[in-house]
Amino acid sequence: MGDPRDEEFQHKDGVVPPSIYQIPYDSEEFDDDGKPRRTGTVWTASAHIITAIIGSGVLSLAWATAQLGWLGGIATLLIFSGIMLYTSNLLADSYRTPDPITGKRNYSYMDEVQANLGRFSCIACGILQYANLTGFVVGYTITAPKSMVAVQKSNCFHKKGHAASCRFSNNPYMIGFGICEIFLSQIPNFHELTWLSTIAAIMSFAYSSIGVGLALERLISGKGGKTSLTGVEIGVGISAAEKTWRMLRAIGDIAFAYGFSQILVDIQDTLKSRPAENKVMKKANAISMLTTTVFYMMCGCLGYAAFGNDAPGNMLTGFGFYEPFWLIDLANIFIVIHIVGAYQVLAQPVYKMIESFAIKKWPNSFFVKAEYPIKIGSKTVLSLNSLRLVGRSIFVIFVTIVSMAMPFFNDVIAFLGALGFWPLAVYFPIQMHIAQHKIKRWTFKWCMLQLLNFLCLVVSLAAAAASIQGISESLRTAKLFQFKE
């Protein structure tokens, strides 16, 4: 059956059936449901996804591979790549309901869950989704200043010598990062964010490539570390219990490194209505997942080969702050630029949720709806809105204060990620697919889907337990508002 949004599609009597597509399809300004016309393509969607997936966490994959060894590390990377591609495609099919091509649009992840699974599941999804997204932007606010401080330390060591005491506070950099994000937060939506996502995606490739290049140089020069099929060995300095905790955290790190389900629906909502959004989104998922997996394998495997079982949590720090100091500085600058863009990609669904609620609550409010265009000549370069200016600025300030107050928050993020991974990336997509396609209980496909559900739940619980152990260790030494590198 064809797509009723295509002009050549007609029923046998030559008439398009009554549906939500009664708005003229050739409208230059409006989409098939009366909303502003979308312009997104497979390439803009891929840029958004890659920006969201390939975070600075890619540099920790050498450490994760070291905990699991060659067998476990490579297998885990490939398995989770396949799982995330499959469940992301299921989520893409739920964008329109009840039919994935001719159904009514769902504008957010919560809308999808509401349409397929009901109100209770929708509320649970919303709590998990927005807690995760907020947690991740807090994590980015902590991570970006670390890279800024790394540049300052590198130059300090270069000027004063390797024995110099080069320790600096992260707080001034966090404040500067927050101010930058307040300005960028005024970008209205995903449609206007494509240029920033593209730059951020290029930056992620750039710093990953520097890490891979330095690892190759280390291997070629014969300085590679000791590796094994099973990873870090139990013995001096590591007990069986510590090995187990590290393995669980490594599996969790790899699983979460592939997660982008929280923003997938918002990205899909930017795509043109023709061809069908789910088909375009599946192509974007495949491009992004293939690209990501190649980079993850290169960083994880080459990093492990370069450092062996002593691989650091951040691959770049393993090369020291010394020489080639300019190249390490460049990589850290690329990380900061990438995080600046990734912050906005992950924050957009939060902004959208808050502003949609305000518009529904106060539809006639001048504060909520009035737009103030800023023009250069006759061209509008930006449109300011009082709600966006105030609401988004408050959100960024809140995130910055939390980041400064809790230097151990990255361990909390690991816990939030563990709690959110299974329901958002696996459970809801699978349950919506079952509901949408009316798959009967105890059929072969139903059993396989539930088996996948169960296995990913086990991974989430194990990673949550490991992250709690990490939080307990951090609480012993961390002090509020004292964050030095």
TrEMBL record:
Residues 38-471 form the Amino acid transporter transmembrane domain. Its main location: membrane. It comes from Chenopodium quinoa. GO terms for cellular component: membrane. The keyword Transmembrane applies. GO terms for biological process: amino acid transport. It is found in: Membrane. Pfam families: Aa_trans. This is Amino acid transporter transmembrane domain-containing protein. InterPro entries: AA_transpt_TM.
